[in-house]
Amino acid sequence: MARTFVAFCAILSLASFVSAQDRYEEHRERERERERHFLNGRVVQVIDGDTCIIEDRDGRRHRICLYGVDAPENGQPYWKEAREALYRRIYNKEVRFAQVETDSEGRACCNLYLGERPLNVEMVREGFGWHHTEHEPIREFAEAERVARERHLGLWADRHPVEPWKWRKEHREARREHEYERERER
After folding, report:
1. What CATH number should be reported for the domain whose range is 39-168?
2. Can you give the pTM of this predicted structure?
């Protein structure tokens, strides 16, 4: 009976090990597949804290936004600081990037790396952007934002920072009202 139990436990352990090994191999294959989709290029322009233009080795320019990050908009507090932080990190440097999705404005949302450094989450961790959950909630980004908030880094030094998506909506509505008033005056 004891031998049967020991054999049964050994089989369960082996099955768990094989299952874990299979999951690891699947994970590694997904990583290798993702690596095949990376492009390399030099950053030729930084537009704001989450958008830049990269020229690939064939001379094609790619306007990308950082996947999972929403930095302050032009006109918002900390816009300049966020833009400068990204500029200092990547301008005129070789980077790797891979498109994850296309946003509602048709922009390529990408993971961006300087060497092995993942810049997307780094920008959030240092308080230069929000974790943009419209893409998808990502634990690593949520944790990075929590750390930046707790340490009052970057835009979190402000007691009540306004999220860029709310700021854009308010300004769109104000612009519409202004245009409506101008039309009525004519």
Report:
1. 2.40.50.90
2. 0.73
